[in-house]
Amino acid sequence: MLATRDVSKAFGGLKALSTVSVQIAPGAITAIIGPNGAGKTTLMNAISGFVAPDVGDITVNGASIAGRRPHEVCRKGVARTFQNLQMFSEMTVLEAVATGRHLHRRVPIYAELLMLPAAWRAERAALADARELLALIEVGESYWERRAGDLPYGYQRRVEIARALATEPAYLLLDEPAAGLNDEETAALGRTLGQLAARGLGIALIEHDIELVMSVSQQVFVMDTGAVISSGTPDEVRADPAVVRAYLGDAHAA
Amino acid sequence: MLGQIVVSGITIGAIYALIAIGFTIVFATNRVVNFAHGEFVMAGGMLYAYFTGVHHVPIAPAFLLAAVLSGVIAWVVYQVGLSDVDRDNHIAQVMITLGAGIALKGAAQVWLGKDTLFPPAFSGPASVAIGPLTVSSQALWIAGGLLVFLLALQVLLKYTKLGASMRAVSLNHYAATLMGISPGRAAAMAFVMAGVIGGAAGGLLAPLASTHYDNGIFLAIKGFAAAIVGGIGSPLGAVVGGLVLGLTESLAAGYVSSVYKDVVSLALLLFVLILRPQGLLGRALPQKL
Amino acid sequence: MSSAIDRRLTLLLLALLPVLAWSTDNNFHKSILVFGVVNAISAVGLCLMLGLAGQISLGQAAFFGIGAYVTGNLVTKLGVEPVLAIVAAALGAMVLGWAISRPLSRLHDHYLAMATLAFGTVMYIGFANARDWTGGLDPGMSVPKFTVFGHDTSSMNALFVVSWIALALAVFVANNIFGHRIGRTLRALKMSSPAAASVGIDVVQAKAFVFAIGALLTGLAGGLYAFVARSFNAGVFGVGYSIELLMMVVIGSLSRVSGAITGAFIITVLPILFDRFEDYRTLVFGVTMVLIMKFMPTGLVDGLFSLGARLLPSGRRE
Hints:
The complex is a heterotrimer of chains A (about 250), B (about 290) and C (about 325).
Chain A: E1 2-11, E2 14-20, E3 23-24, E4 29-33, H1 40-47, E5 55-60, E6 63-64, H2 70-75, E7 78-80, H3 93-99, H4 109-114, H5 117-136, H6 153-165, E8 171-175, H7 183-198, E9 202-206, H8 210-216, E10 219-224, E11 227-232, H9 234-239, H10 241-253
Parallel strand pairs in A: 4-9, 4-10, 7-8, 8-9
Antiparallel strand pairs in A: 1-2, 1-3, 1-5, 5-6, 10-11
Helix pairs in contact in A: 3-5, 3-6, 5-6
Chain B: H1 2-30, H2 37-53, H3 59-82, H4 90-111, E1 127-130, E2 133-136, H5 137-159, H6 161-171, H7 173-178, H8 183-209, H9 216-230, H10 235-255, H11 261-275
Antiparallel strand pairs in B: 1-2
Helix pairs in contact in B: 1-5, 1-6, 1-8, 1-9, 1-10, 2-3, 2-4, 2-8, 2-9, 3-8, 5-6, 5-8, 6-8, 9-10, 9-11, 10-11
Chain C: H1 3-22, H2 27-52, H3 60-78, H4 82-104, H5 109-129, H6 131-134, E1 141-142, E2 147-148, E3 151-152, H7 156-179, H8 181-191, H9 193-198, H10 203-229, E4 231-232, H11 239-252, H12 257-273, H13 281-295, H14 300-317
Antiparallel strand pairs in C: 1-4, 2-3
Helix pairs in contact in C: 1-7, 1-12, 2-7, 2-10, 2-11, 2-12, 3-4, 3-5, 3-10, 4-10, 7-8, 7-10, 11-12
């Protein structure tokens, strides 16, 4: 279980998170939704170590990761993507994903500086892993040698997911992965997420596409102005009057 | 002894402040640390020495001409070097301003000569006694110059349309563009002002410390240190930073060793950069992701 | 230009150097070649820092100086075997590079450039004033002839062989870094440091690594320089050399080992060819730097290559 307990964070006088507690279960998709400015991305930044919470704890399977730096959080098995793409634009797609294999190097540094046989084997293995992940995430082979920054937007989003998966995370945080995707691509993304969860991955999904959220997730947390205002299964959340008021109100009034 | 050290610290600090103001206004409007800025100062000093020494131009017009020409040089550096470079391409900005600075140094070497020049001081008596202290008259000119430029800058930024547009660009580049302000013009004007003030600093300093085509980069590091110590982006910070740096240096020279006074001020720069990059007076900005 | 082509070009350049060295009997020409090789080692170091990892350094002369002075002192004061002295000096420079990168790790671009410039200046002042160790600006330092286990190997031919081997090693390691995991890690740092951290790359450590390796190579070059020049003063290790190194990388290529080597030779040889125009050197330097950064921002040689690649196919079609 990846969990936050009473996490608060303020920027200057602005309270971005106030006593937020969410739980992200392994093998399931947990959605975090809410209007713009609700604190979803700040929560994700806090979990992944880009922002240190003022108070509260964040734990992975009971071990605290609060205040750890991003690469340490990654080593604890929590990977993420970014709302504004953070692509390794100048690399080929294959290299960008292989960079995600960084953590799983089993070769001492001198062997890599001298490219001893062990380093060659590790290099081939990293590229093979990257190919496998790209295939899994449905990025066609014709894209693999292209410059990552030149790919269509939707593909870059997928490459980011493949790159995150390359770190072999137990939990994956996705910040608006469907933004900018067309309906077909969104549906494909939903299927892929389902498959990943079925393999045991715990997925946290920040998303504005309510249809996608309601169709794929098992658990939903609704945030508004930095606090969790409701949680439950998609159906429970849909029926919660507080949620209707704060967030779904406009859509359902019509 | 201490009084005399403080006087020389304030004098050199005022020069650093003038140089720092140039870094600060260019940084505020361009988000660029101008590595050529020291060469504007060098140019001011060398040109002043050249006009008074070679062409026997009277002191006042020679000084004004040197400052104005430094402003023109700065404008050319901006137009040729930076005006069409992507704002986010920081490495290119560093290299281009560095290259422009080297070119200016080379030009001074070719056209103004390789000799160390000792141009005349601005006014007659070499020094005046103020109470128990002896103050060189040039130091008074320097202090006066700093006050004049500070005042002029405040008036320009507060009460003119150009100043308002420069402040808008420095606060929010994108929003300023939306409001119909040309950031390019504000940026170019910032360079011109930096050039004029830097050139004036060079002209003011030259009678006191001599001038040489090769000392620009050194003046740049010191001026930048002053800007950083005071918090880059604010003219007042530049003055505070300049004085802090000048006093630190002259105290170090007086009580430790004149050889290592530069080491002390550079160490101060490194400490502030590393521990408090927003400067002693500045406020920390939240990082955007 | 792919990294495979870069590797082949680099090997070609490496192979060309001995041919050049043995095709001339003129000792002066040979010494220029040796200085070119020494500078190339430095330039490969800066290429890794700036081209690969995006870490600008205007303080490389400090590492070059550490390399030269540690070597000189070990040999003259302690009688250490020259090759061992060079290795020790290079390692010393590496430790210094690693150490300064830690506090500098929060700075980038403009601030990093200024901070490294300040570091280089501090070190230069140190070199110029620690006269017991360096001889300062005058009289400077004198280093005995280069020997290997007591054999006199101070001829330009011998020095060429030694420097060439060092360059070959540097190139071998640099190529291994460029095309593989470490290179990807460093490039990730340059392209998006949040994304790099998000895949588990320790950004601070990665910067320290590239500073260390850049300092190691430049320190190695400094150690060799001590024996090639035999007599030098602190003036060699000022800001000027740091900027010359930057020019080498800019002229050649910001991201290719072959470009760094080409640039090193261009910057070493050209001023000697045009020594009648010595006074114009600085001016031409600066103007060239601005022009290259504006019109061929990946480096002059790189720019010419891609220009050629664009012109050639269209030429064939006609």
